[in-house]
Amino acid sequence: MKYLAILIAAILSGALAGSAQAEKEDTTVEWYGYFKFDMAHDSAVSSNGNYILYVAPHDKGDAVSTLNLTARQSRFGAKIHRGQMRGVLEFDFYGSSPENKNALMLRKAYVTAPLGPLSLEAGQTTDLISPLVPSTINYSAMWGVGNVGYRRPQVKLYQNMGAYYWAVALSRNLSGDLDGDGLDDGEASGLPAVQARVACNLDLGVDLSVGTSVHYGRCDCPNEDKQYANWSFNGDVKLVVNEELSLLAEAYTGVNMNQYGGAIYNAGLVDGLRSSGGWANVLYRPAELWQFSIGGGLDQVRKEDLSTTALARSRNAVVFANGQYQVVSGLWAGFEVSRWTTRYLNASAGVASDPSDLRLQWSLRGDF
Fold this sequence. Notes:
The protein is mainly β. It has a single domain, classed as Porin, CATH 2.40.160.10. It has three helices and 19 strands. Strands 1-5-6-7-8-9-10-11-12-13-14-15-16-17-18-19 form a 16-stranded antiparallel β-barrel. Strands 2-3 form a two-stranded antiparallel ribbon.
């Protein structure tokens, strides 16, 4: 904890010093973030009580309800501008640590700069693939239930031409260690993963954005003298009807997608673990003080690829609805209800093969 305090103090003092020299050095620092309190009641044990990715297995008729309270999602960040350079540094508190001694987790740390007609971005940031984010109070943005794409170190080259957008990136090739040699198989390949996305914006009386993205990473198992791959093909649609109403949707299909939030977090296979899924989300903001969100998602893994794995997750589905109200300026109270169902293959006798969870979550978020 001493080192954590020193780190925070160094960041704050450095930012304040930078702000004091802003005019002289042509540097500006803009702080942003929020404080967030969450309280969630689950009718069955979830993958992680503070948030949910899938329903944990339990004996038939023996579901255990749980209650979790946390402030881990509280987030702070800084946007730093100097000339044509733009940088972002962002943390939350989901680092591995006891619940009441939460550790920092680096979310983003990247810099962007123009490169002629193009833009260059380097550091840790969000994946190019499947870039949309559903509006949920649950911390995990429907990962494991149809939404893929996370954050990882990468270098990206892109061009935003208004109606059209394209980007390519070389990213850290995270894959897992299937041969047990203590080395990530993506690292062992000696190659980065490649990501690419193209999108277009259409004005059809409503704002419509349509995109498609792909990624490919080669992996190596030196102990078994085998190679395999992780890859995906993805589509995304964003429809903005007006200031009050919009629709987001994505779909994907791929192989060995657990490191990208797919395949319901089943470990990959050398022979390939195939999965597909998608999600949709309707956002409605009838007034400045109110906002509502409803949606659902589904992720499925090929059963034949899991035929020998005990308690393998083959299907994961959710439907959810939430509403948020601005109590005072910057302070939002929210409530979300969601229904989760996870299907398990090769469950032993007495274990529920399709456990479900009714999750009720209340939050209080103060933005700054």
